[in-house]
Amino acid sequence: MQTPALPDLAHTAAKPMHWLATAAAMAGVVALAGLLQPRTATATATAPEQRTTAQHAPAPAPDPAGVEFPLECGGAGTTVAKKASGDLDGDGRPETVAVVHCAAGSGTPPGGIYVLTRGSGAAPRVVATLVDPADRKTVGDFAVRDGVISATLLGYSSLNVPRCCPDQEERASWRWKGQAFVRTSGDLARSV
């Protein structure tokens, strides 16, 4: 057996007395630090600071659950397929954008894109229809970023195209300008 080249160090064989001395020293440092704090340093906010924080707390985005969408589904109900939130009109309160279609058992029913808002204390409501299901489009990619809503809209060039396989694609985006959402389109009616 080889002997170590270095002598045994005190901390490698600590005894209870060493631990007790270390704990006492740490308690002393913490107590001293507490005594040396400036008087203005406190852990709680004063009443005006608490009110300011409460007033600027972000409002929750409207929840599309339970919202009546302007969509005729013949009693089948609606499905919120996608949703995203963001402050679209710059008022400091988030809006929710929902992609909604009829709850079909199969297939790809056309969908709509709706913007929801909530007044102070009121239930969420639809304030804009960006894509109407009557246009017979389905929504592919969808996002809300930096106040811009973007989506890929899929459609059909004729009634002869099978409903499973859209053959047209359009990239569209919307931005709030003044009193309405203004739409810009990328590739219009491009074949897929």
Characterization of the model:
β3 (111-117) and β4 form a beta hairpin. The chain is built from two helices and nine strands, in the order ααβββββββββ. Strands 5, 6, 7, 8 and 9 form a five-stranded antiparallel beta sheet that branches. It has 192 residues and is of the alpha+beta class.
User: Helix content range of the residues, please?
Assistant: 10-25%
Largest sheet: number of strands, sense, barrel closure: 5 strands, antiparallel
Radius of gyration: 31 Å
Compute the number of helices. 2
Percent range for β-strand residues: 25-35%
Report the order of strands and helices. Answer: HHEEEEEEEEE
Give the total of beta strands: 9
Cα distance spanning the termini: 77 Å
Mean pLDDT: 80
Q: What is the 3D form?
A: elongated
Structural class, from helix and strand content?
A: alpha+beta
Uncertain residue segments = 41-45, 48-54, 188-192
Question: Which keywords apply here?
Answer:
2 helices, 4-stranded antiparallel β-sheet, 192 residues, 5-stranded antiparallel β-sheet, alpha+beta, 15% helix, elongated
Summarize, please:
With 192 residues, the chain is α+β, with helices and mostly antiparallel strands.
List the helices and strands and how they pair.
Blueprint: H1 16-35, H2 47-55, E1 78-86, E2 95-102, E3 111-117, E4 125-131, E5 138-145, E6 148-155, E7 168-177, E8 180-185, E9 190-191
Antiparallel strand pairs: 1-2, 2-3, 3-4, 5-6, 6-7, 7-8, 7-9
